[in-house]
Structure formats: C-alpha cells, structure tokens
Amino acid sequence: MRYDVIEKIGEGNRGEVYKIKLQNGEYAALKWAKSYEIDKEWEILSFLYGNYAPKPLFRGKRYLVMELIEGKPLKELIGKALNRVCRATYSSKSYNNKFGVPLSLFNLNKNDDFGVFEVGMDKKGEIDTLTKIIRPDVGVITNISYAHIKNFKNFQRNQPLYMQRLNVNFEVSLSMKKAIAIIVFGLLR
Questions:
Q1: pLDDT tens-digit profile of 162-183?
Q2: DSSP 3-state assignment of 170?
Q3: Which of 56, 55, 44, 148 is nearest to 96 (CA)?
Q4: CA dist 149 to 54, 138, 155, 170, 186, Å?
C-alpha cells in the first residue's frame, strides 16, 4: 500500500497516529505501534467495524491503516461545552500519563469550576494511581483496546471481546471510588 503522510494527529505510550493520503486520493489514518505487533488491534477493529469503530483498510506487522474519522477529541468537546456555562480548563495535548496528568493539574486556573483530564493506561494500576491524583467526580471511558487491557489479570485472549471490555470497565470504575463511570463504546462521528 502506498501513501503520503500528511501530519501526525496523535500519540500515546504505545504508538503514533498519522493522517495519510492514499493513492486513490482519499484520506485515512495510520497507526504505528512502537513496540508490539498490531494483530490484536486489527482483530478488535474488524470485530467492532460497522457499530463502534472505523473501517480497517490494511495492516502490516507494526502498523494498520483505517478509515479516518475527523473531529475533536472528547475532552475538548466536553471542555468547550462546559465553557459555555462555567469556567473549565482542558488540555489540547494528550497529557495522559504519570508525567502529563500533573502538568494538566498545574494548568488549572484558581477560578475554574471544572478540569477535564485525559488519563491513559497500558498496565494494571495506572488508572488507579492517576485518579488518586485527579480525584474525579465523573469518569468517561472512551477506548479500551488490546494495548490497554492485555496486562489485566482477568484478560483472557479466548474470552469474547465484549466480556473483556466489561471486565476492564468494571476494574477501571472501581479505581474511581465514588465517581460515576460513563462507558462510551462507540466513537463520535
């Protein structure tokens, strides 16, 4: 598959995402995995396509190409909506780990009513640690892929995908103690 990289549109602990232009002139998203094979994510995308995920187009050993769904990150949509009725701060960057979350906290303004944070994980205990720092009132779980769940003790490769996700959602929800966990399985289109 031939393509031109247009721009980097995202990055996490496990990989990077680029907007690309395909030979036929259409745009797509390319996810490059930093240190793992992409097979399980391809399997999840293929399973969810049509209901909750972008269309998978092509896969290599450490990357996959999928339908590009352009839009704003959920934290930005929530932050902008809150700013219409009160004062809220949210990060435009993906500060979602043990280094970035404290940076996001330092960016809160004294007069803010709300802070909107992105929290990421790739091993058990990370969400718990970060939510103890943030102490959220509401948690929105938007994406759980193989990279996020493979290190959970209740993850079983042969278990149906929806059960894997429900088990992880339950563990993540418990880490938020009294918070409300809103689980979003789909993507905003």
A1: 444 444 555 555 555 554 445 4
A2: helix
A3: 148
A4: 20, 21, 7, 12, 17
Q: What is the pLDDT of residues 36-60, one digit of tens each?
A: 768 877 877 777 676 556 888 999 8
Q: Provide the residue type at 114 as one letter.
A: F
Assign a CATH topology to domain 3-67.
Phosphorylase Kinase; domain 1 (3.30.200)
Closest CA to 166 of 152, 180, 179, 187: 152
Q: Where are the domains of the chain?
A: 3-67, 74-183
Question: Could you confirm whether domain 74-183 is CATH 3.40.1190.10?
Answer: yes
pTM over 0.70: no
Contact criterion met (CB below 8 Å) for 48 and 86? no
